[in-house]
Write a structure and sequence with these properties.
Layout (H helix, E strand, L loop, with lengths): L1 E6 L2 E3 L5 E9 L1 E13 L2 E9 L4 E3 L7 E6 L4 E6 L8 E12 L4 E5 L3 E5 L2
Parallel strand pairs: 2-11
Antiparallel strand pairs: 1-3, 3-8, 4-5, 4-9, 5-6, 7-8, 9-10, 9-11
């Protein structure tokens, strides 16, 4: 059993910052990749990804403003969001597409999401 939980969302003014956290719990061996997606009306997009070694990829809209990181000792990933804009308003989801379970199976898991609202 694996559970993914996000936290850190909230209301912030344009230009402000938030840090989102994703924690993976349960019985597993390896999380190869962790990613943040966001869902806005009519649109879902990949925001950032990070692999086990720390190699990252960003959406063009996020690069330079957002930073994804992970702590393998805590089975956690983070998304530091700076210079937030109205367009960043969305529900942000943590995705772990490749989790190697103790059984040897590889599974894909999603969290329930955390809401980010950028408004003055």
């Amino acid at each position: 059993q694996v559970h993914v939980a996000e936290s850190g969302g909230g209301l912030v003014q344009p230009g402000g910052s938030l840090r989102l956290s994703c924690t993976v719990s349960g019985d597993f061996q390896i999380i190869y990749t962790m990613a943040w997606y966001r869902q806005a009306p009519g649109k879902r997009e990949l925001v950032a990804r990070i692999n086990y070694e720390g190699v990252t990829k960003y959406a063009p809209s996020a690069k330079g403003r957002f930073t994804i990181s992970r702590d393998n000792t805590k089975n956690a990933a983070y998304l530091q969001m700076n210079s937030l804009e109205l367009e960043d308003t969305a529900v942000y989801y943590c995705n772990v597409p490749r989790v190697v379970l103790n059984s040897g199976s590889t599974m894909d898991y999603w969290g329930q999401g955390t809401q980010v609202i950028v408004s003055s």
